Amino acid sequence: MSTENTTAAGEPVLRAHDLAKHFSMGGFGRSRKVLRAVDGVSLEIGRGQTLGLVGESGSGKTTVGRTLIRLYRPTSGTVEFEGRDITTSSGNRLRRDVRRRMAMVFQNPSTSLNPYLRLGEALAEPLVVHGIGNAAERRTRVGEMMELVGLDASMAQRYPQELSGGQRQRIGIARALITDPSLIIADEPTASLDVSVQAQIVNLLGDLQRELGLAYLFITHDLALVRHISHRVAVMYLGRLMEVSPAESLFTEPLHPYSTVLASMHQEREHRIVPRGDIPSPMTPPSGCVFRTRCPIAREHCATQTPPLREVAPGRSVACHHPGELKLDRSASGVRPEPVGVTFTDEPATRQARPVSVGSVPHTSEEK
Length: 368
Ligand SMILES: Nc1ncnc2c1ncn2[C@@H]1O[C@H](COP(=O)(O)OP(=O)(O)O)[C@@H](O)[C@H]1O
Ligand code: SF4
Ligand SMILES: [Mg+2]
What we know:
The protein has 368 residues and is an alpha/beta fold. Helix content is 27%, strand content 20%. It contains ten helices and twelve strands. A hairpin with a 2-residue loop joins β4 and β5. Adenosine-5'-diphosphate (ADP) is lined by residues 23, 35, 37, 55, 57-63, 282.
């Protein structure tokens, strides 16, 4: 079970404690199969702060995001948002307390926009669902939001297919912002865009954060990007958090062996630490420490004792029996200044970007 500090600076806008989301994969009784997509995640996001969430494909990042925004009902644990316990909120309370104040931006803006709705109608939809404003006020708000994200208000008459990928993502962001949320969950928001457009969208998100005081949970597998945009970074592996640290400390002085592996990817090839084997199935996670089958410094007790996430230095939490032991190679000439696009392997970012099913967050109480 994960415990304690993953503390955000200032008052947290969101706090999750020991959050789990398990999916039933069929079978009955003893043969019932359960996939532990998220298991014992505790985290906090401060107002106006960005928490980056990184991890390999399948580590549970999207499931964390969807559980926090209550598209999924947590299997266990609690979620507190803007001071309210929203773990079991439903109906009107879910609409009022969660869907209006927490919004999601998706990886693929093309599939999250209805091709049959003009952009103006798509943007106004959340306002209609929440009963905000009359038709004229909604039109004004739509125009304001389009300009806020750098689009001409006259584009409201167009359809999504008439826009470029970057413009569509700007609409996705405008739609997320239209009900005046305090927290945006951005799930790989730039992964399907060209590198030059990625930078524009990242800069836009940064400007909006400063202007509107937004908090972000920024989900990505792009290590250079997460380092660039996050105040703190949470590292996920097989449904669990391995480390939560300030972004710069995580990359210059990682404490968890898995973080060291990730940080070493920023160094020259010969200094990189490649973990053994493949990521195990979340249906049959290793006993004890889930990273032990790939950890270069695993010991016998790592197979029997699960390390809890615990604070080992101010603002730094690690789930490892031997934090700080696996170090970056100091003989490396230093961290390479990488452009946005460094991923978990040397493969191009496009190979990493898994097609995922996406869609708008319903502003209703629909959930799984
Ligand atoms: N709705 C679902 N039903 C069953 N399994 C799921 C579902 N969503 C995700 N999973 C599984 O949970 C694990 C974590 O998935 P996901 O949260 O999408 O990871 P990530 O976003 O880090 O790639 C994966 O093994 C995935 O196959
Ligand atoms: S607990 Fe053991 S196996 Fe797990 S990361 Fe730490 S040293 Fe490695
Ligand atoms: Mg995902």
